[in-house]
Amino acid sequence: MKEKLRVGIIGCGGIAHSHMRAYLKMEDVEIVGGADIVPGKARAFLDEFGLKDVPDFNSHEALLEKVQMDAVSVCTYNTTHRVCSVDAMQAGLDVLCEKPMSVTLEEAVEMTRVSKKTGKILSIGFQPRYDPDMIMVRDLVRSGVLGDIYYVQTGGGRRRGIPGGTFIRKDLAGVGCLADIGCYGLDMALNAIGYPKPLTVSAYSSDRFGTNPKYCSEADAFTVDDFSVALIRLEGDICMDFRMSWAMHMDTMGDTLFLGTDAGLKVKSPRLGEPWGGAWDGTIGPVYLYTDINGNHVETSVPLKAQPFDRFYAKVRAFVDAAKTGGAAPIPASQILYNQAIIDGILRSSQSHREVEIQIPEI
């Protein structure tokens, strides 16, 4: 086991600060470099955390070439996740890549293949998985108490929650609300039922709020989706009903539902009433189990942990532990490949106005 894991950070914007704060809490991690394509941004980022002797670079290529590292966090905008992650793995480094994994299915396939070929870790940044209540829901679904699961509804959505900057530009983000918070809703449900392979998607997407100055201050720059719904067929004869929104005239797009032959589980949307609430990017709302006992319809409230928990630290810590011990990726690309395939399918279906097949090649 390495005494200290030498880590570099590629992309020094907003989310990189969460990575840095987590790493700096770990005595067995050393930050050895930072890179950002905006001149001076990496230097300012490192100085902000008192790392004045740590070198900065204006490209991830220069960082990979000039600094001895064991691992990197990829915190760049979505359309560069593939190239930064692939280059790092080919340079012999383990990678913690922020969500979404990529923009297209083809990119996700390449990233997964490179991880397999090089033997390097590629873990994708879904910190909600580490929330104690999310784990409770996952374990409850997997316990078998629901019987055979045949239908899942997920998604969430904000009443108002359109971000700005790189999130709303197709050339940088590639995808809008689907990539920002939609991937969380998909991961919550898919992880609970064991990530079955997606087969087909029939979807609708729009940008009616993002392109309207009444709702978005950067409407002129808005070129991605702000709303999506989809019907997804999964292996095992499971149907998934997915809904996601950055903005709408409604408090929620609906709760998450798991319908089984023996019982049903409802996970209510979190933080309802808050403009930015309703997305599965952290906590969950109340949980209820529905079943029949002695011929009676029974509704059981499932207790939540309801305690503060640093999900982001847990995510980064799991990655560090795997990198130091040579363990498996905590949130493996082989799973999130299916998540990305669904996002890719939603985009293709909404653009073509028809159902599309999802074909995932062998890795």
CATH-level-4 superfamily name of the largest domain: Dihydrodipicolinate Reductase, domain 2
Amount of helix: 25-40%
The percentage of residues in β strands lies in 15-25%
Q: Identify low-pLDDT runs.
A: none
Outline the structure in words.
This protein is an alpha/beta fold and 363 residues long. It folds into 2 domains: 5-127 and 311-331, Rossmann fold (3-Layer(aba) Sandwich); 129-309 and 343-357, 2-Layer Sandwich (Dihydrodipicolinate Reductase, domain 2), CATH 3.30.360.10. The protein has 10 helices and 15 strands. It has helices at 14-24, 41-48, 60-66, 81-90, 105-118, 132-142, 170-173, 177-192, 311-325, 333-352, and strands spanning 5-10, 29-35, 56-57, 71-74, 94-98, 122-125, 149-154, 198-206, 227-234, 238-245, 256-260, 264-267, 287-293, 296-302, 356-357. The strands form 2 sheets. Strands 14-13-12-11-7-10-9-8-15 form a 9-stranded mixed sheet, with helices on one face. A 6-stranded parallel sheet has the order 3-2-1-4-5-6, with helices on both faces. Helix 6 (132-142) packs across helix 8 (177-192) and helix 8 (177-192) packs across helix 10. It is globular. The relative contact order is 0.16.
